[in-house]
């Protein structure tokens, strides 16, 4: 039972990381599954994530994705493409982290919890980038891109090494994101 809960927490942490960057969590999963210490055990149908071709593909995709987000206005275009891709990646990473779970429960949790978590984080980051684009003319977007890439990497590492802390971090980020972005006070009217 504890292993099941931990695998769900790992999956949700990785799914949230996919909301920041699609390929960073997949790259970190690939590296962690290859580690001799055995930091991450993948489900039997997901062993390909740790393969050498997958590692090369995730490395190249991560570099291209991160570089693309440093180009103002192109980053907003990437969000349009990344949103459905991120949700699929969130479902994939959540399912791959759950090893001793029935297929019905695995895929239900992966689609609803993993895909939903990714969609919420992707939506929040797209909102932040949209606000940055219009308030700074795109000049603040590289800062946003750096924070997002760093958050994705940190969250993916935390999800694999200390899943409970990653889950608490996800809850904290959700609270802050929803509070800051959705419940903003209107600007005070000038006299």
Key terms:
mainly alpha
Q: Could you explain the architecture of this structure?
A:
The protein is an all-alpha fold and 191 residues long. The protein has one domain. α1 crosses α2, α2 packs antiparallel against α3 and α5 runs antiparallel to α6. The protein has 7 helices and no strands.
If you average the pLDDT, what whole number results? 88
Please write the string of helix (H) and strand (E) elements. HHHHHHH
SS-based class: mainly alpha
How widely separated are the two ends? 61 Å
If helices are DSSP runs of H or I spanning 4 or more residues, what is the number of helices?
A: 7
Total count of domains:
1
C-alpha Rg (nearest Å) = 17 Å
Major sheet:
none
Strand content: under 5%
Anisotropy-based shape: globular
Low-confidence stretches: none
Total strand count, please? 0
Helix content: over 70%
């Amino acid at each position: 039972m504890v292993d099941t809960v931990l695998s769900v927490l790992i999956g949700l942490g990785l799914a949230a990381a996919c909301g920041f960057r699609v390929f960073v969590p997949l790259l970190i999963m690939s590296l962690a599954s290859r580690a001799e210490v055995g930091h991450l055990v993948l489900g039997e149908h997901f062993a390909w994530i740790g393969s050498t071709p997958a590692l090369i593909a995730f490395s190249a995709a991560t570099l291209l994705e991160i570089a693309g987000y440093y180009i103002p206005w192109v980053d907003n275009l990437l969000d349009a493409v990344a949103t459905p891709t991120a949700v699929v990646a969130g479902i994939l990473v959540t399912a791959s982290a759950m090893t001793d779970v029935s297929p019905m429960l695995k895929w239900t949790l992966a689609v609803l919890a993993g895909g939903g978590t990714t969609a919420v984080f992707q939506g929040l980051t797209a909102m932040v980038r949209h606000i940055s684009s219009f308030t700074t003319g795109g000049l603040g977007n590289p800062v946003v891109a750096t924070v997002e890439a760093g958050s994705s990497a940190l969250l993916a590492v935390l999800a694999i090494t200390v899943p409970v802390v990653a889950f608490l971090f996800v809850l904290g980020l959700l609270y802050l994101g929803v509070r800051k972005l959705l419940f903003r006070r209107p600007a005070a009217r000038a006299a």
